[in-house]
Amino acid sequence: MISQEMLRLGRQSSVIRAISEYGAKRKKEIGAENVFDFSLGNPSIPAPAAVRDTIVELCETLDPCKLHGYTSSAGNMEVREVIAESVRTRFHAPCEAGLIYMTCGAAASLTVALHALINPGEEVVVPSPFFPEYRVFAEKAGATLVDVPCHQPSFALNLEAMEKAISPKTKVVLLNSPNNPTGAVYSEESLSALADLLRKKEKEFGTEIYLLTDEPYRELYYGEGTVPWIPNLYERCLVGYSYSKSLSLPGERIGYLLVSPRCPNAQDVFAAVCGAGRSLGFVCAPSLWQLVVGKLNGLTSDVEEYRKNKDLLSSALSEIGYVITPPEGAFYLFVKSPEEDAYAFAERAKKYELLLVPADSFGVKGFVRLAYCVSRETIEKSIPAFRALMEEYKK
Amino acid sequence: MISQEMLRLGRQSSVIRAISEYGAKRKKEIGAENVFDFSLGNPSIPAPAAVRDTIVELCETLDPCKLHGYTSSAGNMEVREVIAESVRTRFHAPCEAGLIYMTCGAAASLTVALHALINPGEEVVVPSPFFPEYRVFAEKAGATLVDVPCHQPSFALNLEAMEKAISPKTKVVLLNSPNNPTGAVYSEESLSALADLLRKKEKEFGTEIYLLTDEPYRELYYGEGTVPWIPNLYERCLVGYSYSKSLSLPGERIGYLLVSPRCPNAQDVFAAVCGAGRSLGFVCAPSLWQLVVGKLNGLTSDVEEYRKNKDLLSSALSEIGYVITPPEGAFYLFVKSPEEDAYAFAERAKKYELLLVPADSFGVKGFVRLAYCVSRETIEKSIPAFRALMEEYKK
User: Fold this and answer.
1) Is any Cβ of chain B less than 8 angstroms from the Cβ of A200?
2) What is the average pLDDT across A95-117?
3) Distance (Å) of CA A80 to CA A84, A254, A258
4) Which residues of A touch B112 (CB under 8 A)?
5) Facing residue for A268 by CB, picked from B7, B64, B280
C-alpha cells in the first residue's frame, strides 16, 4: 500500500478548483466574456515590463553557468542583502541577510518553517477563516491545526478566543494579513495584544511559541503607510513572503522566509529552516528568479488597479444590498451569503454566470469569497447579474 | 524546542561543501588557475544559446499573466505532452502526459515520490555508493535506508547482496544510473535480473516494491545508444529526471517525475504524488522553465566536452598509476585511494592543490570522487600535480 494520506490529499478535489473548472467549461460554451469568474486568486495585472527587461538583460550579460548555476541552499547572498536592507529601511527593523532563506514561493516558506519548528503532536493555532492549505501543511509537519474564529463581521483577531486556544502544545501561531479570504488586515493594536498574550503564555507554560506570518499580500494594502511589521511587536517571529502577488509571478515560485534577529534562538531556527528545506527537497530557489527579485526589489505590479476593482465592486454590491466586509488588503471581497448555506448561494449564483467560492473550506460558514483580480470589464458586466441574483432573495 | 532533527541536518556540514569552501579560500590566496578543484558537480559547459533565445522569445511574445501564471500543480499539460511523446519515441515505451508531474528538480522528484509511496517504518534499498542526500530524503519520508554495496571495482549491481537486503519492509528500490559518484551505468542484463528479483520478492512477501530511478545524468552517457529505460524492464516504476545537468540549469530547479503506465496502480500512485507535492509545499514547477524545457526538449548542452575531459583525465591518471573505475556516464571519475584512508589521501592531495572528495559520505571507503565538469585547462594543469602526489606513495 502506498501512503493513503497522500493519496487522499491527491484525490481531494478543491472547491476552488472545481468551480474554476466549471468556469473553464462554461466559458467554452457561452464565451469567456459572458462568465463572471471570481474564483481564482491569480493576478490579473501583468508583471511590470521591468521584469521582462531584467530577464533579457541577465540573459544577455551574465555567464550562463553563473546565471543558471546553483546558489547556496539559502540563496544568493547579494540578493538576500538587498532584501535585508529593504526590510531595515522600510520597517525600521533589524534584519540580517544571514537569516533570510530564499524559497520556491509562499507555500515553501510555510512548509520549511513548520517542519523546522514542529515536533510531532504540537499545535498550530490559526485565526479562521484561513487559506485551506494551511491545514495540509501543518498536518504534514506533524502538527494539529487549531482554528480560532475571528470576530464577525470585521474578521479582526478575537484575542479572548485566541487565549482559550493556546495550550502547552501550541508551537506556532500562523497569521495571514492581509488575509485570504477576508481581505482583513490585523491592526497593530490587536497584534501587540496578541504578542503580549503569547509572551504571557510562554511564561505560564514554560514553552516557546513562534509567530509565523504569511505575507504574500503585504503590498496589496489599501490603507495608509504599510501593514504592521510583526517582528517589531514579537520577538520569536518568522516572516514568509512571496513575489507571486506583488510582482504577478505566481507560477515562478520565488519568495523568502526570514527569521527575525530578535528571536532569541534565531541562529538555531535558521539552521533548522535550512535542514527542513534540505530534507523536503528544496535545493535552492530558482536562480534566475532570485536575481530578478534582487534587482527589482521594491517594485510592484500596478496594484492601484486592484484598488479600483475593490472600490467598484464593493460599492456596487453594497448598493444592491449585499453585506460585505470592507476589504483593507489582498484582492478578495468577503460577502455574506443572503441564505444560510453558502454552497446553495454559490450554486444559485451560477444561474447568472457568477462564479463565487463558498468560504466553508476556509473554515467559516455563510460567506463567499470573490477574487476581484479580474478585468474591470468583468466587474462592470457582472453588476446586473449580482442585482438579478439578489432579486431572488427579495421575492 | 524546535525540531532537533532539522537542526542537526541544517548544521551538518557536508564534506563536499567543506572542500569546496576550502577551495574558494585557496583560490583567493593563490589564484583560481592554480587550484585544481574537482569537488563540485556543477556543470561547466554553459546552457545552449537556445535557452537564452527561448527565454527572450517567450518574454517578448507571451502575455505575462500566462507566462508567469500558475500552471496546474502537476504542470503545463502541453509541456507534459511533449515529454511523454519524446519518451514514447526514444524508448519505445508507453508514457502518458497525465502521469507526468513537473518538479522543482531532481531532489523534489525524489521527495514527492518517497512521500507518496512510503509508510512509516518501511525501507528504501539503495545500491552503494550513492548520493548522500538520498538518506536524508528517505528518512524524512519515514523510511529506513538500507544500503547494498555494489561489486568492486566495476560498481555494477550486486544482485546476491540485493536479494539478501530486500525484506517484507522494502517499499522502494532507489537507483541512480549513470551513477553519482562512480560514473557506472547499470547494464540492461543486471537491471532485468533485478526486476525478476523484485517480482519474485513481491510474490514471496505479498508486498509491492517500487523501483524509483533518479536519472539526472541520463544524457551524459559515453556508451552506444541510450542507457536502459527501466520501465521497459519493471512495471512498478517511477522515473525522476532533471534538466540540471543535461541543459546546464542546476539552479533553475526544473525536472519531472513520471509514473510508468505499466504500473498496475499508476493512477493511484500519481494521485499520491500530487498529494505529496501539495503537502510538501510544491505548488507548481517554475512556469517559465516548464515552457523552456517543453520547447527545447531533446536538446542538451555540448556533453561531448565532458567526454573529452573524461578521456583525458582517465588516461592520464591510469598512466600515472592510479586505479580508476572506467566511467560510462555522468561527469565523475571514481579513483581508488592509494592509501586505505581516503580522507588522508584527500588531505595529502591538498598539498598539490588538488581538491578531491573522499567517497566515505557516499557510503564506500577507500575511494575519492573527481567531478571533471571543469575546464580542459584545469585538467591539463592538474596532471603534474597528480603525478607528484603519486610519487609520495612510490617512495
Assistant:
1) no
2) 98
3) 6, 13, 10
4) 281
5) B7
Contact at CB, A278 and B253, closer than 8 angstroms:
no
Size of the A and B interface in Cβ pairs below 8 Å: 248
CB B143 within 8 A of CB B114: yes
Average pLDDT over chain B reads 96
* Residue-number span of the structural domain to which A164 is assigned: 68-295
Domain boundary residue, one of B271, B295, B319: B295
Residues from chain A that touch B47, judged by Cβ atoms under 8 A, are: 64-65, 68
Phi, psi (5° rounding) for residue B126?
Answer: -135, 125
Residue B309 and residue B274 share a domain? no
A126 plus A241 within the same structural domain: yes
Chain B residues 219-248 within an 8 A CB cutoff of chain A: 248
* CA nearest to A290, candidates A330, A261, A229, A249: A249
Q: Which of B66, B59, B68, B112 is nearest to A253 (CA)?
A: B68
Enumerate the residues of chain A whose CB falls inside 8 A of the CB of residue B276.
3, 6, 9-10
- Which residues, numbered 6 to 25 in chain A, qualify as contacts with chain B under a Cβ-Cβ cut-off of 8 Å? 6-12
Say which DSSP state B291 is in: H
The reply to whether A330 falls in a domain is yes
* Substitution target from B39, B55, B253, B290 for chain A, most A beta carbons within 10 A: B253
Residue B63 lies inside a defined structural domain of this protein:
no
Question: Which positions in chain B touch A104 (Cβ < 8 Å)?
Answer: 104, 253, 281-283, 286
Whether residue B58 lies inside any domain: the answer is: no
pLDDT digits (tens, 9 = 90+) for B61-76: 999 999 999 999 999 9
- Asked if the interface predicted TM-score (ipTM) of this complex is over 0.90, the answer is yes
**Where residue B17 falls among pLDDT bands split at 50, 70, 90?**
confident
User: Which one of A295, A329, A355 terminates a domain?
Assistant: A295
Q: Which residues of chain B make contact with A208, given a CB cutoff of 8 A?
A: 1-2
CATH code of the domain in which B30 resides: 3.90.1150.10
Identify whether residues B85 and B12 lie together within a single domain.
no
Distance CA A327, CA B152 (A): 67
What is the pLDDT averaged over residues B102-113? 98
Same domain? For A198 and A141 the reply is yes
**One domain, residues A343 and A203:** no
- Out of B70, B112, B279, name the one closest to residue A136 (CB): B279
- Is the pLDDT reported for residue B296 higher than 90? yes
Distance in angstroms (rounded) separating the CA atoms of residues B256 and B264:
20
- The 3-state DSSP class for residue B131 equals coil
Q: Which residues of B136-165 are buried (b: 16+ CB within 10 A; e: fewer)?
A: bbbbbbbbebbbbebeeeebbbbeebbeeb
Same-domain status, A129 and A248: yes
Residues B328-371 pLDDT 10s: 999 999 999 999 999 999 999 999 999 999 999 899 999 999 99
